[in-house]
């Protein structure tokens, strides 16, 4: 007949191991309910996002004439120089807004109910105009121009 002889040290080691596993299991289970506010794992930095929408103002003059204009909302955004950001342009009012950003080769079209995303990076400080080609002046139901301030 064989007996398994456990020394006092072995028993303590087994108890400590069991406790570590238990604490670890509790930690893993409760961790799912927590929301980390700071990432320490060096994950890829996400690109800052700026959202603009196309809006319409309309009214009627005293003599019954319908007047309307289109705008970007917000009309001004601030972007850090040399940092890549994405502009998310969502079409709410107006069927289509072909646009460009002055001083860059960025251009595209915003359509109603769709989001147009362009990535931009400005290496020079200054104020850049986001211009809708269709509604660039009062005569064309604008000015649909947003200002991108880079510094
Ligand atoms: Cu427009």
UniProtKB/TrEMBL annotation:
- Which residue windows are transmembrane per the record? 12-30
Keyword Transmembrane: yes or no?
yes
This chain belongs to the protein called Cupredoxin domain-containing protein
What InterPro entries does the database record attribute to this sequence?
Answer: Cupredoxin, EfeO_Cupredoxin
One matching Pfam family is Cupredoxin_1
Which residue windows are coiled coil?
none
Query: Which keywords are on file for this protein?
Result: Membrane, Transmembrane, Transmembrane helix
> What region holds the EfeO-type cupredoxin-like domain?
64-145
Source species, domain of life: Bacteria
Record flagged with keyword Transmembrane helix: yes
